[in-house]
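Report of the visiting student (M.T.), summer placement. My assignment was to run the structure pipeline on a short list of targets and document each run. The first record concerns Sugar phosphatase YidA.
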Amino acid sequence: MYKLIAIDIDGTLLKNDKTISTSTIKAIKEASAKGIKIVLSTGRPIQGLEKYAKQLNIISNDDYGIACSGAFVKCLGTKEVLFESTLTYDDMQYLYNVAKQLKITLNILLQKEALILTPTLNITSQLEALLSGLDMKIVDFNTLNKDITINRAVYINENLHFKEHLVGVIKRNNYTLTIPKTSNGNDSLVLDRENTPKELFNKFTVLRPSYNTLEILSKGVTKGTGIQLIAEKLGIHKDDVICIGDSGNDIDMINFAGLGVAMGNATTEIKEVADFVTLSNEEDGVAHVINKFIL
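After the run finished, the structure tokens were exported:
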């Protein structure tokens, strides 16, 4: 019997307009009423998770959330931080130098300060700050304090094609953001393992939530390790866990779960490792899983 469901947020829990459908809310609340633990697991900062946890009423002293793709695990009731992984100033300098070599940009998340820092104006960082309720600042990375605490870094190849996509997102959702006059990316670069330094993958956990971004975490940290920590704390065996996701930063938790589920809109690599493929995020895919396996 399944006892815990871990759900990614963007592209999974949320529709494309960043809302949760009525059917999904109903299914999650019915599962919760049956004693099933619901854990939101996201690449977003914890602030970008908490507002949805409140909407779903999963904020008790034994409710937990996974943010920063596993680098930050928190009890949503007591506010206790169960796990936090950080990158160092030296890590950031290395990552920044690689970004300059690849002709892409970088942002870093300071969880305690609820702040996203980036060296150049870009739409991706603005969107993340907006959707998570954080401040964003453009700063010279060479001027940062050496005792800085970084939870997660993101490489962003905001080339012309990706910029056009993001502008479309802004217009469809009526967001008010500053659109840079030029793109902050490399049109000739495919941002993947083959086109980035091997050392990067040796030194860090590198996840690919989209074709134009890479998330950088401390080595060994993933959503999968976050789910494992919570499951062990709750005394739940991995076979009794369902994990649902759609993109590259979900692959580890889908592999960990007794039942790994890919959304209908998931990338091919996610669908290939999943045990079950549900409907898309626009078709209430999460509700479909809960209705099929829980209710």
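The first strand starts at residue 4 and ends at 7. DSSP finds eleven helices and 14 strands in the chain. I thank the supervising group for their guidance throughout the placement.
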